[in-house]
Each structure stands twice: as C-alpha cells, then as structure tokens.
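To the structural biology subgroup,

Please find below the input and predicted structure for DUF2809 domain-containing protein, which we are adding to the shared reference set this quarter. The sequence is reproduced verbatim from the submission form. If anyone notices a discrepancy with their own records, reply to this email rather than editing the shared folder directly, so we keep one authoritative version.
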Amino acid sequence: MKRSRPFYGLLLILVIGLGLLSRRLSFWLPDGVNTYLGDALWAAMIFTGFAFLFNRRNTAVIAAAAGLYCILTECSQLYQAAWINEVRETTAGGLVLGYGFLWSDLIAYAMGITACTMTELAAKKRSAFQ
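Predicted structure (tokenized):
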C-alpha cells in the first residue's frame, strides 16, 4: 500500500500544531496528561514524518524506525557537552534534541507510536472492507 503524501503532509502539520499547542495549554491540562502528551505527540510527529518520507513501507517498519529514532534521540540527551547544550538552548534545538534523559519519555514515545500504528492499521483494515 502506498500512503498519500499530501494527506500525511497535512497530518504532520496537524500533529506539530497539536504538540506546540499542548505546551502552550499545559496549565489547563491535568498533570498526568501534561507529563506525557507533548512527548507522545513528538513521537507521533516522527511516525507521521517517516510515513510521509517512506510512503511505501509497511506500518511495522515505520513504527520500528520511529521507535528507534525516538530512543536514539532520548539517549543522545545523556551526552551533555557544551557545544550540544548550546544547540539545545535554541528553540529548534530543544524541540529536536530535547534537554535531558527521562525514562518516562520512552513510555510517552511508545504511547504516541502505538496510537499512530493502531490508527493506521485500523484505517487500512476499514478501507479493505469497503
């Protein structure tokens, strides 16, 4: 199956918008949701971006690649050299690289990727029966 790049491009923009909005509205969200939502949406953005770029790959490959990317990015936060911390202090650097390693972020990433995976598989299954 080939994914629609225009659809996934719009979906990617939507997920980025929701992720940024979740940080702006963090004071309105319950603590449990606030703790994980931004990171889950970040992982969903990675999944959606990979689905956009590699639109002919199956869902399991996209999910595995997104999971590996998220794990490697989180583990890179264990490296705290001055030069990379300067990059992290910028808005873009902080959004891409994060700031510090947290085990809970890995749980949030798994939640975001799982939600994307299940949604895509359900959509494929539904379209196969129509």
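Summary notes: The mean pLDDT is 91. Residues 5-128 form one domain.

Regards,
Lab coordination
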